[in-house]
Amino acid sequence: MTITVGALREAAAGERRVAITPEVARKLHGKGVRVLLEHGAGEAAGFPDQSYAEATFADAQQVLAQADLLACVLPPVDAVFEQMREGATVVGQLRPHGAATRIAALGRRKLTAFALELLPRTTRAQAMDVLSSQAAVAGYRAMLIAAEACPKFFPMLTTAAGTIRPSRVLVIGAGVAGLQAIATARRLGAQTEGYDVRPETREQIESLGAKFLDLGVSAAGTGGYARELSVEERAAQQQALADHLKVVDVIVTTAAVPGRPAPKILTAAMVGGMKPGALIVDLAAEGGGNCELTRPGERVEHAGVTILGPLNLPAGAPLHASEMYARNVYNFTELLLRDGAIAPDFSDELVARTCLSHGGEPRFQG
Amino acid sequence: MTITVGALREAAAGERRVAITPEVARKLHGKGVRVLLEHGAGEAAGFPDQSYAEATFADAQQVLAQADLLACVLPPVDAVFEQMREGATVVGQLRPHGAATRIAALGRRKLTAFALELLPRTTRAQAMDVLSSQAAVAGYRAMLIAAEACPKFFPMLTTAAGTIRPSRVLVIGAGVAGLQAIATARRLGAQTEGYDVRPETREQIESLGAKFLDLGVSAAGTGGYARELSVEERAAQQQALADHLKVVDVIVTTAAVPGRPAPKILTAAMVGGMKPGALIVDLAAEGGGNCELTRPGERVEHAGVTILGPLNLPAGAPLHASEMYARNVYNFTELLLRDGAIAPDFSDELVARTCLSHGGEPRFQG
Predict the structure, then answer these.
(1) How do strand B250-253 and strand B305-308 relate by DSSP bridges?
(2) Alpha-helical segments (H) within chain A
(3) For testing contact with chain B, the best of A131, A163, A164, A281 (most B CBs within 10 A)
């Protein structure tokens, strides 16, 4: 029997991505899978229904009634699960932490659900790693937002009326988002620095042509891990950062830890010491922000400094974000398929560790 | 007697630039000129009052009562002129075309006014050329707005989940704004093309690493000027452009002519043929737009294509835009000063051609 993979039009406010793109629909079709999408599912991402040559379109109720596997970008409201066929599978970002109610809703329909945020960060998982692919989009977009909101030019400009000096940009946190933000600032010609508590990021930051900001306090420990700083060392580090911020035009902070509140790195006092006209874009706003003054989704002015806390940055570049996301979903879904049926192999750690609920039995305590 | 150069806080909605920056205040001070600014004049540009070491601050009325020369970014409302001292001078962008009422207001106070938009585009005028300096800011910002609003990445991205192809960007019009837009798109890694009816722009476009879009219709005439196209040639050119637009992700149009309505280059039918998710940023929105569908200051959706018509783009990067503008004003003001007095030399074409009103006598019919 042919299995059906479905996707709805995402319902969250401002969400423009789609979990199945025309490219992935074609690949699923090639595997003998039927693709069933809600009317207009890809429209906001730049994929109108007619761009899906290998998919069938129906209303949401029909998609839910027929899908053996439902792919989603963000978790749907719990009522959606109630409309699914018993024993079906859900794959996507399911925000597993603190999601007891959601897991209970999955249980009522005996659903099996995989939260892709829980993938281990191994080599094999990279092709499915939605956190990485979407963080790349977030880092790129955060820096574009910064460039657009900045009262200065990023690049140096030589004009008949003299030279305009490039902006000084600091990116805090050099994970996927941070590195993409650094790359974007460099492309735009800004004088760019990156900072991370993990000393091994120095090489990655420098390989992008940026400078590693050295605060003179080394947290290098044994085995490549950062060691805990003493209270005095931490105070010295904070002071060194505060002093450095006085010359910076733009900060993009990217120190987000999924499912946990974002670490507070920039204090109100540090912001108060910055130049008038300086700008902070806090990519960690969703988790409360890396800056004490950040208000998620809002623009804050403090002592002449602007702090932006944009939400759901990947949804702002929905076409490419969806392309990467759908490929991640496809690569994970391949793991679940065997002989034309959905048959997850729980001896595979990628399957086992992402499972929220199996046949309705909770598998994750977030 | 010491002369006083003044500037107000700009009053137009959304205007954040200032005509006198701390750098220019210092230079004027060095020439023995007193600088008198309205409280907060530079604040929105990132120059709080305390950043001006060599200026005096007062309220608007005092500035107007004491200024021998008033510098402005945009023309103030006519009532402002009435508060100036008789015979004083005004320098700035004065929107001279169709400004009979403004010229009459200048006359009532016997003011002498210079509209910097009227500078001839000669080598000597370059250092004062506000249209060029502000167009550079506009072109840069238009492309940032495009990158931010684009559903795709501009650069190519190689990820664990496959490659993301770069966006295809077309810039129409290769003047100062267009070339800056091209440079910005190139910096961001987009596949960039430039188009202009003037064949001599090919070299400039190519020197930025972009491709010159050749529509196969040559308008090359004698003496380096473009010749008028025949009706058939123009139709062929339009058709070739429409065909080409089908593969483009982003268009930035920059064909603006100061004081005249912008030429309509993109028809509704051309837009209708573009890809869903495509984006047009119309830098000529202020003059009505280069696209038939543009609504100044608004966002229009048409057949899946988004058309943005942003207004006053230079005000969005007020710090650097003001730095360049103030240098332009300073360089022009130097022309007017002789032995510590304002003594315009009307035998200088830069002075003669920009003069709107001399001692109240109208000098320009716009």
Answers:
(1) unpaired
(2) 22-30, 60-66, 78-82, 100-108, 130-149, 176-187, 201-207, 231-245, 268-272, 318-336, 349-354
(3) A164
pLDDT of residue A219: 67
Give yes or no for residue B111 having a pLDDT over 70: yes
Residue A221's pLDDT is: 60
At B257, is the pLDDT very low, low, confident or very high (cuts 50, 70, 90)? confident
For residue B97, give both structure tokens: 């075309």
From chain A residues 276-315, the ones with a CB under 8 A of any chain B CB are: 276-277, 304
Interface touch B148/A151, C-beta < 8 Å: no
The low-confidence residues of chain A, meaning pLDDT below 50, are 224
Beta bridge partners of B351: none
Tell me, rounded to whole angstroms, the distance of Cα A18 from its chain centroid: 15
The answer to whether B15 and B74 have CB atoms below 8 angstroms apart is yes
Structural domains of chain A in order of their starting residue, each with its CATH number: 4-129+318-362 (3.40.50.720), 135-316 (3.40.50.720)
pLDDT for residue A88: 98
Phi, psi of A92 (to 5 degrees): 165, -170
- Give the closest of B151, B153, B327 to A162, CB-based: B327
Residue B339 has pLDDT above 60, yes or no: yes
Nearest to A314 by CA among B281, B300, B188, B157: B157
How far apart are the C-alpha atoms of B143 and B102, rounded to whole Å? Answer: 34
Amino acid identity of residue B315, one-letter, is A
- Return the residue of B nearest to A46 by Cα: B277
